[in-house]
Amino acid sequence: MLNGRSWLGFMHPSEASNIHHRSYLIFSFSHRSHAPFGCPEKVILLQKLHLFLYPAMLLCTIPRVGYCCRIGKTVRFLLSFSSSCALRAVEFAEESNTHDFNYAKLQSRMQNYAISGHFRKALETLNSMRNVPGKPTVYDYNALMYCHLKSRNVLLEVLVEVYVGMKRFGPAPNASTFNTLLNGMLSLGNLKDAFFIAKEMCGSGFVPSFSLLSKMLKKSLGVGSLDDSLGIFDLMLRLEYFPTEPTLNLLISMLIKAGRIRVAYSAFSVLWGKGYFCSVYSYNLILWALCKSGQICTALALFCLMKKKGVIQNVCSYSALICGFGREGLEEDLLHCLDVMQSDGCKPNVRTYTIIIKFLCDAGRFEEALEYFGRMEREGCDPDLITYNVILRELCHQDRVGEISELIQGNNMLVGQLFRDMYSQGLKPDVYTYGSLIGGLCREGKITIALQLRDQMLGNGLTPSITIYNTLLGAMFKIDKI
DNA sequence: CTCTGGCATC
């Protein structure tokens, strides 16, 4: 391999000039954040001023025919250019050096304008580089964008305009152009433009990085724009990029919450088809959504497919199916599922049991529900507030509650015992608990006591829900007591 | 990222 010196030695002059320009650009880029005043370059310029200014003055004061053209040019140059005397003197150097110096000056001025938020002036300066052959380059455009994005008042629309101009009239945007725009738009939170640029980037034959697209997807999900997120997800898939699991789970959860279960399932399936290994957590999200929306058959198919593919089911997967069967009124399948679950070595937990108890209650099989209630306690699985609330609700639906007014005095046997158990486990009644009791009281027409419970809730720092007020109002209308 | 799931009125 050639070292730097021999490489330069073999280089064609045109390549050498390229290198020169490039290093110049790197230089100007690396100094873009520095103030232009008081830097070492200025000292050098001042020294040059003394060397060059004297002959320049001589030329101006003692005109000589042979120099007229040059002097005329110098004067025009002086008029059109900036205030630095040092730079005026450079006019005496050979033409290409003049261009270089001129160009470098324009570059730094353009960048200073852009950084300080004077976009229009920066753009004008960029356009004035056209006087220098072959300028401005794509690097100058990129610098303009980069510096403008660093300024305080960023106008993304004008950046898009500049980009569109580059595309139409040149210089053609390069990978840096797209990355600069993408990073800027992302950090400013403008996802729509960022997505547009990402698509443009792909269309121009460049590939946006995984991390940029992943960041974009996360941001998009963070602000809740589902359609944009799906677009980014789609783009990622086309590039064979797979989102990280938390991001995928967020996308799936949000789609499900928006009721777009099919779309969530498709996203999952596409990834699966591409060989992406989805964990049980992603898969359970879909499974639950299917089971809760009455699609137990699809859920079962997914469950079997995952089992076949070797995804380890967990208690949550089985609980989903149990819930799905319960919703369809398939109690026998529900109980069978519990057996399968246990034979698979999966131990039901408090949520599994609560689901079973709830659906047995709904099916009018209260005695069996109580058996499961006992069974969970025997297995060391403590019921929680939701389990108690489910049983309490059932009691309140039945006439078994008897006089709920007695409960308030602590005399009602079953409900009273339930409350004592709850309290002994450190569980305090919540809005649902009160909702069940108030509902039961209202059904019996005991609105006065129901209202007392409402007051008790408020006293315990609980805000009665809309549901509770609906219940109370409904009961009041019914007995015409309003 | 250490995640996913269970309860209420008319």
From TrEMBL:
Chain segments annotated as coiled-coil in the UniProt record: none
Extent of the PPR repeats: 174-208, 279-313, 314-348, 349-383, 430-464
Molecular function via GO: mRNA binding
Keyword Repeat: yes
UniProt keyword annotations, A-Z: Repeat
Family: Belongs to the PPR family. P subfamily.
Protein name: Pentatricopeptide repeat-containing protein
Source organism: Quercus suber (Cork oak)
